[in-house]
């Protein structure tokens, strides 16, 4: 009986922790902010994407692909005008994944002369293409591909999933107990 109980607890723990740290299936709100963080740059220049998925900026044509742990951003813009913030805010509206890092992994193509400023909170990732407040214009025309990596902390699973898994484990224990008698 002890072995069955231990096995049930381990199964329940594995099932709960399997979801922790993942953003797959989450819905991200994407917003272009300019000239300050929190100010929508252009009406209609926002949207949402379910991970893994792709969002295309309806105004400038920039493409944002979000997967678990990575964002690939393709910019076709001719640069970014001066402002304290000119870039994108990606907010996980499904849960709070507890972002714990956000870094620039690589840049290919016609990159901007100023490296984007990155910041994060528990539920959002910010990409600021004018971190110094001055305009950021490439020396030549053409697209650039920025790859960003992010990590999440162990998130607390939602109550419904936890309760259903616990219910299944308890039902299994009840069946085993009847079988043993």
Structure description:
The protein has 181 residues and is of the alpha+beta class. It has two domains: 2-19 and 158-180; 27-152. Helix content is 21%, strand content 34%. The protein contains two helices and ten strands, in the order H-E-E-E-E-E-E-E-E-E-E-H. The protein has helices spanning 2-17, 159-180; strands at 27-33, 46-50, 53-56, 63-67, 70-75, 87-92, 99-109, 117-120, 124-128, 144-152. A five-stranded antiparallel β-sheet has the order 2-1-6-9-8, with no helix packed on it. It has a five-stranded antiparallel β-sheet with strand order 3-4-5-10-7, with no helix packed on it. A hairpin with a 2-residue loop joins strand 4 (63-67) and strand 5. Helix 1 (2-17) packs antiparallel against helix 2 (159-180). The model is unreliable at 4-19 (pLDDT under 50).
Feature tags:
181 residues; five-stranded antiparallel sheet; 10 strands
- The shape, in one word, is elongated
> How many helices does DSSP assign?
2
Class of secondary structure makeup: alpha+beta
Can you write the helix and strand succession as a string?
HEEEEEEEEEEH
Beta fraction of the residues? 25-35%
